[in-house]
Design goal:
Order of helices and strands: HHHHHHH
Largest sheet: none
Helix content: 55-70%
Number of strands: 0
Structural class: mainly alpha
Shape: elongated
Number of domains: 1
Radius of gyration: 19 Å
Length: about 110
């Protein structure tokens, strides 16, 4: 499906959707999981990649690492959901107190 020209990072620049990434890295996926969680999967994949301190020079080894992290990101949402995983800040802030003061507290 993808024309792999031998430059992994350049080829990855052409990928636009979660499905593109999953297909490129040959990760089997359920379209219904991706449909609901595509942005969460890509963000989690990005977060995993940001944790890498050093990548191997060998392109096939790098591709294997990327594929492993993408698989892990996808599986996070097969086993769980976006609310539980809290990938995005807006979901992380849901459990934090918002500093709300009700009117009855002011009247006391």
């Amino acid at each position: 499906m993808f024309d792999y020209d031998g430059d992994l990072e350049d080829d990855m620049q052409d990928l636009v959707s979660a499905e593109d990434f999953l297909q490129f890295f040959n990760v089997e996926y359920d379209p219904s999981v991706v449909h609901v969680n595509r942005l969460h999967i890509l963000q989690r994949f990005h977060n995993y990649l940001n944790e890498i301190t050093k990548l191997p020079e060998d392109e096939e080894a790098r591709k294997g690492i990327y594929a492993g992290y993408l698989t892990q990101a996808y599986n996070d949402f097969v086993k769980s959901d976006a609310i539980t995983e809290k990938v995005f800040k807006v979901l992380q802030d849901v459990d934090k107190p918002q500093g709300f003061v009700s009117l009855d507290m002011i009247a006391k």
